Amino acid sequence: MELVYIHSAFLTAWSIHTAHHGTHTPADLRNLCQDMTRIWGIREVTSCDLQRVLALVNAGAIQITAPTGDPPRIVISNYDHGKICVEIAEPRRTSGHTTSMRYFPLRTELKYGTYVAALIRAWNARDPDLDGPGFVESLSLEPIVRASAVSLHMSPLLAKGQRRLESIRATMAAPKATPERREEGSTLLERLRAKELRQLTLRPPPSPRQIARRAALDRVEAIAAVITVLSTSGSTGQQRVSFTLPTVLERLKDTLKTSKIEGENCISVMSKEIAPDWVKMVKIGKTQAVVVDRDARLSDSEMRDRVRKALLK
Question: Could you give the CA distance from residue 203 to residue 109 in angstroms, rounded to a whole number?
Answer without folding.
Answer: 6
